[in-house]
């Protein structure tokens, strides 16, 4: 059996085991949807830790891991309180509280670096610490905000299904039929055939999901034209999210962000494509509801 086939089988088995748990945590509304918060916390903290391990260059040039992980936890909790604060046990948070927290965290990190660490390597340490929290944690934790919307679970299913199918189709299409390499600096071995497969299956996936939700919940989330447009956007953003992680891994000279998920690598290897797509989808839904 070829290495490609072995890897494909392992990826499928990991998905069969992990996906039902992931979907259940997104689905349940028990305990004021705390399971969704736990999903965001676990995924963002593990992804952030993997990123910090990749970014560690020396004792001077290294991220402030403890500070970053603590900030990630606080940001997730604040996003949850903003999304579900009206459930009865806390008052509704103003959205500006998220900006306040971000400002306080950055200021605290600057002060900490000034007085607790030598100045050598300070710019690098500050930059990689703050970037990880803002990009990985702030972006992905919009999952919590989507969950709080009307039909939030259905939107999350569409988002996850389309992005993951796009990623899987690109992987298998490129692995078995890829002939023309893109030669992108971040990932030169990706093929145009893989990207095309991802795009086609992304569109098919969102159309199928839309119809299934109509039959099961009597709710049409998107028109056909809107679904096709979103399928294209999700495919593009998914690939860009993958390329962002690939660029960081290439700069760190590693193949995978970790080894926590067999066949996939690290947690960031699995959720990299969702990081860019999630906030876009949330703000699109907010914009659409305001129109």
What does this structure look like?
By secondary structure, this protein is an all-alpha fold. It has one domain. It contains ten helices and no strands.
How are the SSEs ordered, and which strands pair?
Blueprint: H1 3-27, H2 30-55, H3 65-84, H4 96-116, H5 122-140, H6 142-147, H7 152-177, H8 192-217, H9 224-252, H10 267-290
Helix pairs in contact: 1-2, 1-7, 2-3, 2-5, 3-4, 3-5, 4-5, 5-10, 7-8, 7-9, 7-10, 8-9, 9-10
Q: How many strands, what sense, and barrel or not for the largest sheet? A: none
* Overall outline: globular
What is the terminal-to-terminal distance?
Answer: 54 Å
The low-confidence parts are none
Number of domains: 1
User: What is the count of helical runs?
Assistant: 10
Helix content: over 70%
SSE run: HHHHHHHHHH
Structural class: mainly alpha
Mean pLDDT: 87
Summarize the entry for a quick read.
With 291 residues, the protein is mainly α. The protein has one domain (3-290).
Which labels suit this protein?
76% helix; 291 residues; single chain
């Amino acid at each position: 059996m070829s290495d490609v086939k072995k890897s494909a089988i392992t990826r499928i088995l990991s998905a069969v085991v992990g996906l039902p748990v992931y979907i259940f945590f997104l689905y349940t509304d028990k305990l004021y949807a705390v399971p969704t918060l736990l999903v965001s916390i676990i995924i963002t903290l593990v992804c952030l830790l993997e990123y910090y391990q990749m970014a560690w260059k020396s004792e001077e040039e290294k991220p402030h891991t403890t500070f970053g992980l603590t900030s990630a936890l606080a940001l997730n909790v604040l996003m949850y309180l903003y999304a579900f604060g009206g459930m009865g046990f806390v008052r509704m948070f103003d959205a500006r509280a998220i900006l306040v927290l971000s400002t306080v965290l950055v200021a605290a990190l600057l002060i900490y670096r000034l007085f607790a660490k030598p100045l050598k390597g300070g710019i690098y340490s500050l930059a990689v610490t703050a970037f990880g929290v803002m990009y990985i944690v702030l972006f992905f934790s919009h999952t919590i905000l989507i969950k709080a919307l009307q039909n939030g679970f259905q939107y999350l299913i569409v988002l996850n299904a389309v992005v993951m199918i796009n990623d899987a189709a690109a992987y298998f299409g490129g692995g078995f039929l890829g002939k023309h390499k893109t030669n992108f600096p971040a990932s030169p071995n990706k093929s145009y055939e893989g990207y095309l497969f991802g795009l086609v299956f992304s569109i098919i996936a969102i159309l199928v999901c839309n119809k299934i939700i109509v039959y099961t919940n009597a709710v049409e989330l998107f028109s056909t034209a809107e679904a096709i447009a979103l399928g294209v956007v999700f495919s593009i953003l998914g690939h860009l999210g993958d390329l962002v992680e690939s660029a960081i891994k290439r700069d760190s000279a590693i193949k995978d962000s970790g080894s926590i998920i067999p066949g996939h690598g690290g947690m960031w290897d699995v959720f990299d494509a969702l990081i860019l797509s999630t906030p876009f989808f949330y703000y699109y839904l907010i914009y659409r509801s305001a129109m």
